[in-house]
């Protein structure tokens, strides 16, 4: 079933064409890998990613700075008011009066009165002095926590805890417990430091306190996510955000705080329409090396010359010899038709296999030469799979061309059907590229995806290979099935058809 002389003859007849096509294909692959790997093809994309990364981080810094500034400034204002009111109340009641009032409260409790009854009794008893139930509650609440200690430090500590607890109750309804706990810690620390550093205004103190706090905490938090930002960068951004926030509050004192903070901390990225944001996200995630090498080359440019080679050689192996009459001399020898068709089939498949084996070696050497560069996103196993996929695809196309050559007795008919279908598949996969899902939406034309359904080359799923999924396996199986069926039909057709001998 196999003729060595005929195989050698086919090798000799097509050697120069095979050498040129193989060299050109390997040369193009090496140049594409090295040029894309060394070039700054991903510079614009990387720069854009960096810009939007900074934009997102600073937007979050802005939001935190304005939110905690507002909470801190409001808490300090509440503390100042509470402290002034409490001091005024004590000054009015006097310290001896405070002790008389609290002793009376304790005596009523000891006599069996409830807390509410005792407070009401005191309010009625001292109403003539203008001491309402509200004032009684303030004094008794303080007494129950701090006793008779009316020192400035004790009063400040008491009011600080009351303000912090009030902020906590508001925040826990609005946010989660972790956020509320953190805010309470911030408020307690801020009020404590504010009490010690009275030379700054409330607004300036709150601004500086929050700025420094974020500068200390956020760099470590961001570092855990692989983002490097210095304390000074965070502080500068936070300080600017708080200034803008304070300025807007002066212009719009009745503004809804949450909405104002959201508006001022809106990132540039989120200001774009949704379809534009989606397109930019796709560009940020775009693998340029994988797109050009894995898809554009292996499914298009890298198949062009092998397809031309396959069309030409498949025609010359059968139809060309029948058309020229040389097949008559071959069959006039003891060589059978089965041997002829099987030998020519072996030559075509073997020549393609060696071609892509050399392409694999070229790809591996090129990747090794580049080393571990960040731009290189294709591994050596993936390179081998891509070449295997290209070979399997070419087996299917060669099967179609070989079938056309075995079916027709005229070269022009063989070239028309085999070559025409092969070039149609190549052209349609090029057109389908513009509608493929891996192309960013900014340049994708979804309707062009139709062409991917009319070409068998789309079964060469290079994206699946590079993504590490196994979807390419069943597609490769279909391509192998097409190849096997075409070659089997070729053998049957050549054995049974009438030849013009």
- Tally of individual helices: 20
Count of strand segments: 0
How would you sum up the major sheet?
none
Which assembly state applies to the chains in this document?
single chain
What is the overall shape? Answer: rod-shaped
N- to C-terminal distance: 21 Å
Order of helices and strands: HHHHHHHHHHHHHHHHHHHH
Provide mean pLDDT, rounded.
83
Classification by helices and strands: mainly alpha
Could you tell me the radius of gyration in angstroms?
41 Å
Number of domain modules: 2
Low confidence ranges: none
Residues in β-strands, percent: under 5%
Report on this structure.
The chain is mostly helical and 501 residues long. It has two domains: 4-41 and 282-496, no CATH class; 54-271, no CATH class. Helices cover 79% and strands 0% of the residues. The chain contains 20 helices and no strands. It has helices at 4-38, 43-93, 95-110, 115-125, 133-146, 152-174, 177-196, 202-224, 231-251, 257-264, 268-271, 274-284, 288-317, 319-324, 326-331, 337-370, 380-407, 411-433, 462-467, 471-496. Helix 2 (43-93) crosses helix 9 (231-251), helix 13 runs antiparallel to helix 18 (411-433) and helix 17 (380-407) runs antiparallel to helix 18 (411-433). It is rod-shaped and about 135 Å long.
